[in-house]
Amino acid sequence: MKRSSTLLFSSSSSLRLRHRLLALALAACGTTAAMAHGDMVPQAVDTSSLPQLGEKWLESNPYDKASPARKEALRIGSSAYNQNCARCHGLEALSGGIAPDLRKFDEDCSGLADAAKKAACYKEMDDFYLGTVRRGRTRDGRVYMPPFEGTLTQEAIWSIRSYLEDRRDSTK
User: Fold this and answer.
1) Is residue 90 scored above 80 in pLDDT?
2) DSSP state of 40
3) Could you tell me which of 167, 21, 156, 17 has the C-alpha nearest to residue 105?
4) Of 65, 85, 60, 67, the residue nearest 154 (C-alpha)
5) What is the DSSP annotation of 46-112?
6) 55-87: per-residue pLDDT in tens?
7) Which helix (H) or strand (E) holds 142?
8) 10 Å Cβ neighbour count for 106?
9) Sign of the C-alpha dihedral, residues 161, 166, 171, 172?
10) In angstroms, rounded to a whole number, what is the distance separating the alpha carbons of residues 46 and 28?
11) Nearest residue to 27 via CA among 19, 39, 38, 17
């Protein structure tokens, strides 16, 4: 009888240990998932098929709808977005609520009737977009978006902007 109680104790201890290890493993997975937002490494993008823009950062998107490079910029922008932005901003720019919905980024501008005000609004949004992507966003010492300057070229950043404009226009 003593022998069977020892076996019972052993298997029960082993079972408790397994449950504790499983609980610890599940907790670790949950912590990893919770810390994932803002914890990504920017990925470089091949933009060699686009017209190169030079060292000086442009103030507005050179791959606008009138650009002959627009189609290629959209192809590259889609890939670049999925590699670098989708984790927080959602696949195909459909935000899941973690970060802003980038399809609605310049939504206020599109409703302006005055052409000069509309142009000024889009220019302001381009400035904000470029600054945010290049330098990232930090609040209270917490990184909400990593800086992409040095990893993404301006060709890649403007291609992503073209992709987001295209996604915005496709929702109307």
Assistant:
1) yes
2) -
3) 167
4) 60
5) --TTSPP--SSPPSS-TTSTT-TTHHHHHHHHHHHHHHHTHHHH-GGG---SSS--GGGTTHHHHT-
6) 999 999 999 999 999 999 999 999 999 999 988
7) strand 142-145
8) 19
9) positive
10) 35
11) 19
